[in-house]
């Protein structure tokens, strides 16, 4: 019988349990997948802790994996038995050796992209795609600020934005992470533990500020991110690694220069299959051309997912992390 990581209550990494699970035959519009690699993402921590309440308990965990189609249900035309596929989508349950999945959420993998790379890039890569191409379409000559520039999304955003002709400013927590970000296209890494990043942003931009900030940190960086924007700039708050942003008085946006703010999710930007396929194709193209180098820098066996969560929350990881099946 296949096994999966399940939670029976929300809490710390110790709530992650390795348990046998029953995986039935796919129903209409479903596929059964045998996973080969599972992606670890910070959103998994949000569901584990209850910041994002799981739909019910006990619950699976995880939104991203690569694998092989073992069976298809009635009406499935998107993929066929034997196809190598990847997904980055609800429902929760990617931390599993096998599972059922809606067929319209699954994308065929090109032969040139291996399963481990795919599982380490899909959710973060689609996030980088919508941030740079949809939420604020970055163009040549733009200067942007990305937090956690040495993280999974951060390294992809740095490379992709540089390819688009932008100047990239990124915050990191150490000199080692600064060098990693610089090697992936970050023009101006800022070590936030010893420099106030809004001051450095103003210095780099000759006092103007940036047109867009991509902030996945949340509570600890929110106001300073606003202070890094130029008038009419866009604050993109797409994560809460330090905790949720407190309630906001909209007058603050007025006082700081008629700023815009958005709280996007990859799930909204890929809700329609045509958008999912467009984002996936754009991602596959830049990976196959070598524009994006996916840094899978950590790996744990799936059964040891708790150890991976501990490292992620302690900010001991860089790039992408994969759980092997």
List the helices and strands and how they pair.
Blueprint lengths: L2 E5 L9 E4 L9 E11 L1 H8 L9 E2 L3 E9 L11 E5 L9 E5 L4 E2 L6 H21 L7 E4 L5 H12 L3 E6 L2 H9 L4 E4 L5 H8 L5 E6 L6 H5 L2 E9 L13 H5 L4 E3 L3 H4 L3 H16 L7 E6 L3 H9 L6 E5 L1
Helix pairs in contact: 2-3, 2-9
Summarize this structure briefly.
With 325 residues, the chain is an alpha/beta fold. It is built from ten helices and 16 strands.
Structure description:
The chain is α/β, with parallel strands linked by helices. It has two domains: 3-121 and 270-324, Alpha-Beta Complex (Quinone Oxidoreductase, Chain A, domain 1); 140-263, NAD(P)-binding Rossmann-like Domain (Rossmann fold). It is built from ten helices and 16 strands. The strands form three sheets. Strands 3, 5, 6, 7, 8, 15 and 16 form a seven-stranded mixed sheet that branches. Strands 11-10-9-12-13-14 form a six-stranded parallel sheet, sandwiched between helices. It has a three-stranded antiparallel sheet with strand order 2-1-4, with no helix packed on it. Helix 2 (115-135) packs across helix 3 (152-163) and helix 2 (115-135) packs across helix 9.
